[in-house]
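Appendix B. Chain record.
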Amino acid sequence: SYEYEAWRSIYREHGVDLSLSDWLPHVGAAYEHFDIYAHLAELSGVPVKRAEMRPRLLALMQKMLEGVQPMPGVEDYLSTAKRLDMRIGIASNSNRDRVLPMLDQIGLTECFDTIVCRDDIGRAKPDPDAYFAAVSNLGVTTDQAIALEDSPTGVKAAKGAGLYCIAVPSPMTKNLSFPNADMRLESLTDVPLPGLLTLLATTR
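Structure tokens predicted for this chain:
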């Protein structure tokens, strides 16, 4: 992912490496669950100034966002959901200064009725606060909502809020287990949204 590559670049600037085995278990989790700054300080033996490092991280991420495309099927799902007059939201474990530039880059910001970010809520995923906030903002109940998640941490948060949750792994998380998900799709292109809604109407 672009976030992993950005952090890996920063680690290399400090003469160490951020291994995939260290990163993967915490995909989708907030930094309080895996303190990536403290991990860098431990590996490099040099104190890390977080406030000074964050602008560098954001600049690297912005550069790596160039050319990034939505996951396959996302644009079709969004356009179909709008056509069906469904309300659409984001419940992210990232801060707003990371989420909005990414959405702007791929041209999807205006597709969402609400965008809840890490800095909008009290507790990060796997706690369910982000989902409770998103559902409330959308004006629906948790049993009326469906969550699409690409990480086990996100699935746990969605289920903790009482949502039906479908795991749709990213290339980085495709080999991870999603034991708490109600369903798993390898790609949104596997089942178009109308077909998925029909399936859920008969199985939920």
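Further analysis of this model is presented in Appendix C.
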